[in-house]
Specification:
The chain has helices at residues 5-8, 87-111, 135-150, 162-166, 226-247, 254-285, 303-313, 343-354, 373-380, and strands spanning 3-4, 14-25, 28-33, 35-36, 50-52, 55-63, 66-71, 80-85, 115-121, 124-129, 155-158, 182-185, 189-192, 207-215, 218-225, 294-298, 320-327, 331-338, 356-360, 364-369. With 382 residues, the protein is an alpha+beta fold. A hairpin with a 3-residue loop joins β12 and β13.
């Protein structure tokens, strides 16, 4: 069985090993070594990648107790190869995973809530708890988590004896009895875990809870730790800096500046709506009575504007009143009304003719159309 060096020292970046087997598969080549520092996917943490003898290892899994390295090219059985981990990826994973342990330990110590779900992905670490934690409480949780990180306390991983395990209090989602690996963080947490971790909490650097949401009776958190959290801070800080410059507002007051802009936008939209409605009403007053279908086209009317127009003109139209807004390139929004034609029954025919989607009542339908203006006008022509 493969000697798992990451259990001995999570910070081993390179090693030499002997190739025990190499088998071609649909995933490239499956390589087993006599020893490895590559951690296979497990415990919520993704598998390591790197190189073996210069050959790319793009993933690592465990099968029947053996660590399988998925490589792009074969390696000769019996040969000695030099392994190099993608250390940036590994260390980032350890920062995130150890950060999650600290977070879960703090939540458990403060409220007694259990971690019932954990996943590490490209957008951060997802952690589910079995009870709800309010945004105000999460502020205090995050503060305590980072205090523990700054204290730079020891993180220890070990396999307790059966007797020790029976008397040990630790977090676990499973009922475990043997070969249990415990990751202990001084003054914070003790948890069953198979993954490699940092050696001291200071290596985590920083932890940031990005968002929270209700999930059944509990809460789902998304967090970042270490370099990923720092990179996220830089990205968002740059965004705030740019918004600050655009609004001529201090960085700490950009939210007030954005609110002022949104309030002004809403005021202008309200005024514009009033102007448009006045223009529509003036236009409708000039329309003469007609027994033919009426079709109107506009560049920038929304559905409410089109509906307002149709309601004003419909009393003067004994056929179909159709109002469209848009252009031939991007398509059209439409509102169609009639007091004499059952539009619910006719909607399928209309949509087929104008390459549209939509529906509504017998008196009015609305939707979108992709047909050209010429084709639309031709359909409604009597």
């Amino acid at each position: 069985m493969t000697d798992k060096l990451y259990y001995t020292d999570s910070h081993i970046r390179s090693f030499d090993a002997t190739v025990i087997s190499c088998t071609k598969s649909k995933n490239g080549y499956e390589i087993i070594l006599d020893k490895t520092a590559f951690f296979p996917e497990g415990g919520g943490q993704v598998g390591d990648s790197g190189t073996l003898g210069g050959v790319t290892v793009f993933d690592t899994h465990e099968k029947n107790g053996e660590v399988v390295h998925y490589a792009s090219s074969p390696l000769a059985v019996g040969s000695t190869v030099h392994g190099e981990l993608d250390w940036e990826k590994r260390f980032s994973n350890m920062q995130a995973h150890s950060g999650e342990h600290i977070l879960s330990g703090v939540v458990y110590s403060m409220y007694g809530y259990n971690n019932v779900g954990f996943h590490m992905g490209a957008d951060g670490v997802i952690v589910d708890f079995d009870e709800y934690i309010s945004p105000e409480e999460l502020v205090e949780v995050e503060r305590r988590v980072n205090e523990l990180i700054y204290r730079d306390t020891a993180v220890t991983a070990y396999f307790p004896s059966t007797v020790e395990l029976a008397n040990l209090e630790y977090r676990s989602k499973l009922d475990l009895h043997e070969n249990v690996r415990i990751v202990s963080i001084d003054g914070c947490d003790s948890c069953a875990c198979c993954a490699p971790h940092v050696k001291r909490t200071g290596e985590v650097g920083i932890l940031k809870i990005l968002e929270s949401s209700h999930r059944k009776n509990g809460v789902r958190l998304r967090m970042l730790a270490g370099k990923a959290a720092f990179d996220d801070y830089i990205s968002k800080s740059n965004s705030v800096l740019q918004i600050s410059a655009l609004l001529s507002a201090k960085q700490e007051a950009v939210s007030d500046g954005v609110r002022r802009v949104l309030d002004e936008r809403d005021r202008l939209k309200y005024e514009l709506t009033g102007f448009k409605r006045s223009a529509i009403q003036s236009f409708a007053e000039k329309i003469s009575f007609s027994s033919s279908n009426m079709v109107f086209f506009y560049d920038n009317y929304d559905t409410e504007d089109l509906r307002f127009l149709c309601n004003l003109i419909l009393p003067k139209c004994t056929g179909i009143c159709a109002a469209f807004s848009g252009d031939d390139e991007s398509g059209y929004k439409y509102v169609i009304s009639s007091g004499t034609v059952n539009l619910r029954d006719k909607a399928r025919e209309i949509n087929t003719a104008i390459n549209g989607k939509g529906g509504g009542s017998s008196e009015m339908i609305q939707g979108t159309a992709k047909a050209k203006r010429e084709a639309i006008e031709e359909y409604f022509k009597e």
